[in-house]
Write a structure and sequence with these properties.
This protein is α+β, with helices and mostly antiparallel strands and 351 residues long. Helices cover 23% and strands 23% of the residues. The protein has helices spanning 125-143, 180-196, 201-212, 253-270, 324-329, 338-347; strands spanning 2-7, 13-18, 40-44, 51-55, 90-94, 106-111, 150-157, 169-175, 216-219, 223-226, 235-241, 283-288, 306-311, 313-315, 318-319. An eleven-stranded antiparallel beta sheet has the order 1-2-5-6-8-7-12-13-11-10-9, with helices on both faces. The chain has a two-stranded antiparallel ribbon with strand order 3-4. A hairpin with a 6-residue loop joins strand 3 (40-44) and strand 4 (51-55). The chain is globular.
Length: 351
């Protein structure tokens, strides 16, 4: 992998991640851009104790542009985009409309491929491995920023999820606090350790799923993918490395080599859940990593890196809406038994 750092016309950082090490990235951004103006503010909810990012400047962000005006495609044929080069492998750049900025954190965009009509599932294993390297590198870089406590790499896919740009891409958030979901996991981790005399919760969850087997979707040498026992979403899969590590930086060579095979197979199965004539399955793919500092940092070594992949589609043509119980009380009601979801995902295996 070759990494090249440059700057866009408004001063934002852009990084090329290339499979070839002989490529020269010296293209300049020729757009007449105004400086980025953000109004991101973190407010604390006194009742729940969580944080809300208020970012009014995002109201003007790019919204469902036509394909020939996509800002994530390469700059070609006289049309200038966020990526000055005429082609690329993987690109990461600072978001022009960030939810978090300055002392409130950082937001980056990850372009997985220059092909506007592709998806992550269409990548080769070599390309998917390069994305993993980019995620890992950004995790390491953002961990060095004093205002960042936790790094979150994720992909929103599909208009149903709320995606405003159709080009295959993901995002990376550097939060200035430990997120509520991670805080809950850390609390459960500590309670389990106390209750069991020192056992690790992540290890016990993986061990239980492997022993049970009913919810296991893929079982590799270095990774295991399963539908969790208390899945919140109709189709939800958690992908864990079998050797527990706190974040992407700690994955060993074996896990890095096997990851593209496992992850690409999961994504392709997701697109086959509802049958051959259905549109692509909308999903969220979310990496859970341990905080680097602040709340929960003391338990970093006990935390288990994992990826959670889920869809809001519950059956053909129907979405799972977060209505009264889910939105009002955070109590999920799942229409699909986890064991049935796992069976369907096993049936959708690549031939």
């Amino acid at each position: 992998m070759k990494k090249t750092s440059t700057r866009l016309a408004d001063g934002r950082e852009l990084l090329y991640y290339d499979l070839r090490d002989d490529l020269v990235r010296d293209e300049t951004d020729r757009r007449p851009l105004d400086p980025v103006s953000t109004a991101s503010e973190i407010r604390r909810d006194p009742l729940l104790g969580d944080a809300v990012a208020v970012a009014s400047h995002r109201q003007g962000r790019t919204y469902h542009p036509p394909a020939d005006e996509c800002p994530l495609c390469p700059s070609r044929d006289g049309r200038l985009s966020e990526i000055p080069a005429a082609d690329y492998d993987v690109v990461v750049f600072e978001n022009r409309f960030p939810s978090l900025a300055g002392e409130s954190g950082r937001c980056e965009v990850v372009c997985f491929t220059p092909d506007h009509d592709a998806s992550f599932a269409d990548l080769t294993e070599e390309q998917a491995a390069l994305v993993l390297e980019a995620w890992t590198d950004r995790t390491a870089e953002l961990a060095e920023l004093p205002q960042v406590q936790q790094v979150f790499c994720f992909e929103n896919r599909g208009a149903e999820i709320g995606v405003t740009l159709g080009h295959p891409h993901g995002q990376i958030y550097g939060y200035p606090f430990t997120t509520p979901r991670t805080a809950l996991m850390l609390r459960s981790l500590a309670e389990h350790r106390e209750r069991t005399g020192g056992r690790n919760l992540f290890d016990d969850v993986v061990e239980r799923e492997l022993a049970d087997g009913d919810r296991v979707v893929l079982d590799g040498e270095h990774w295991v993918a399963f539908v969790p026992y208390a899945a919140h979403w109709p189709y939800e899969v958690h992908l864990h490395p079998k050797r527990r590590v706190p974040d992407l930086r700690e994955l060993d060579d074996g896990a890095r080599t096997e990851f593209p095979q496992m992850y690409l197979e999961l994504l392709r199965r997701f697109d086959r859940i509802f049958g051959p004539d259905e549109p692509p399955t909308p999903y969220i793919a979310a990496w859970h990593q341990a905080p680097f500092r602040g709340e929960g940092a003391a338990d970093r070594a006990e935390f288990g890196l994992h990826l959670e992949l889920f869809t809001i589609r519950r059956t053909s043509g129907k979405l799972k809406y977060l209505a009264g119980s889910e939105s009002g009380m955070s109590v999920f009601i799942n229409d699909v038994p986890p064991e049935a979801a796992a069976e369907r995902l096993r049936e959708a295996a690549s031939k």
